[in-house]
Amino acid sequence: MNILEARNIAYSYDGKRAVLKNVSIGFETGKIYAILGPSGCGKTTLLSLLGGLDSPTDGQILFNGVDIAKKGLAFHRKNNVAFIFQNYNLIDYMTPVENAALTSKQPSLPFLERLGLTREESRRNVLRLSGGQQQRVAIARALASDASVILADEPTGNLDEDTAEEIADILKECVRQADKCVIIVTHSGDVAKRADETLWLKRGEIYRG
Amino acid sequence: MSFIKRAVLYCIRQRFKTAILFLTLTIIATFLLTGIAIRDAADGATADVRSSIGGKIMLEPDTEGNMGGGVQNQWGTVYGYTGDLITPDIVAAISRVDGVVDYNSEDTAAYYGAGVDFNYLPAAFNLSYTPYGEASSYTATLSSEKCAAFQSGKYKLTAGRHITPDDRQACLISKELADYNGLAVGNSVNMYSLDTDDVTKFKIVGIFDGTEGTSGNALTVDEIPANCGYIDYSSMFELFGNELTGYQQLTIYVDDPTGVQSVYDRIATLPELKGKTLKLSIDTEEYDGVSSPLEPVQKSVNIMIAIIVAVSAVILALLLTIRVRSRKTEIGILLSVGISRANIILQLFAEAVLTAVISFSAAVPLSIFTAEKAGNFLTSASLDVKINAEYLLPVSLIGLLLIALAVTVSSWTVVRSSPRDILTKTS
Lengths: 209, 427
Description:
Chain A is an alpha/beta fold. Chain A is 34% helix and 29% strand. In chain B, helix 2 (15-53) runs antiparallel to helix 8.
């Protein structure tokens, strides 16, 4: 059973340049999906549509079989999905604990500690953390949100090789422990190797790898 | 995390940005509080002026069309007023009207008396056109306290009392004249009038000063202010009984100037005035003279308050627009994690309100100081400018309205954007 599904979706900028053409793909819980493809092929656009950051020009995004547009994209973003961005997108005047607790009612410190941040680091300003630590905070925020689907847009893109592998392992571990569906847009072969399924996006169409 | 917690965190952690907003709001609140305090002080001062001056109604003979056909004599054609006069009966009826607190008739140089048993201060020319030397002029009055020279403060009573409507053969003389002749309150003086060819005894009921140093190079005795005094109007009727049957004019004093019109209406309907060729009018000259310096203050303060509100709205909108634009990424992140647009606007509003609460608290002591300075700067009249607790409510409401308007205007375009657009552009 697909937890998240793109059904015949299309997307174009200003109704002219088609980025996605009739894309249909389903995602299951407990799996990591890696979406690969050349730059500008529409990987981030697909992820944005799956996460309700934008609406498709045509087609539907279904969460547990229900069109996400019915309850509203904000509801989908708040309750069903969580994002991890390449540039972390943390709120700069908050500590890691506060960032991770942004949409969660559960204590966020255990998530941060599980991801390797000390208590002291968890109460610092996020800007005083390293890139790898900031990405861990972003992952903790995604995990603490209790969303079933984690959408990661090049989560290791700004990190060195060792840290990137570490982050990829953390994501894989999360899937195993929390039984989530993780969809990662990446250029990294190492990250893609850890995925259960690899998807290729070319000329606006999607192919299973 | 609630929008209030996010707002508190922002205010505490972004101290520099909060300080800028705090200073702006403090300045706005100080100006508003000061403006309202000055406006209220000017209103209060105007009300005080009203109650201290009271209202005045004038009753005069209506000379228009009542000057007769003219009488031919050796000097030519002489026209005289042929209409009705203000008689003591009319004055008595007016004095009983509800709201009338006093009345006066003042006839300058109505009586010329030569000193029978006293001497005037000498002038350059000492003319002896009466058996007792030169005569000086006296103002006939019903109530000397209400005479122009005493009302304006030019003359001040230093001994005795003022002439009242009940007096008979009473007079007020200057301190200079009293000292010159060794006279005091309670003494009597005899004066000879060339008009009546008679000597009349007047009792000195009061002595006034204010004439000192005003004599200059007077040519005649009556040009020296110290030689001129006041006598009661009753004596005038006794002395000139056949020729004088009424008052030249009557000034009627009302306790509350706001009630002048109703008192005027009651006087106008008196049967004693019905069909008489007398003119009744409301005199606001004195009130206008005192209150007019305050009117520009009231007007300018009202304009100032309007300008402050308008400029504040623009400044706040600009300041908050800059703040919101610098927080595009944050707004994009909040939208991406599913926080609603309304919730984000509420956070921005709460941040401004939290800062405003502290600003308004700081503005109160600050405006107490500035209000006093601004009050003195705007007018030479003494204004009792105070910051009252009741001003905080209108200032807070105006402030909240300005903030709500500025937050909505400044955040509208950003919050309406798609989170993807915001994050794509900011990254």
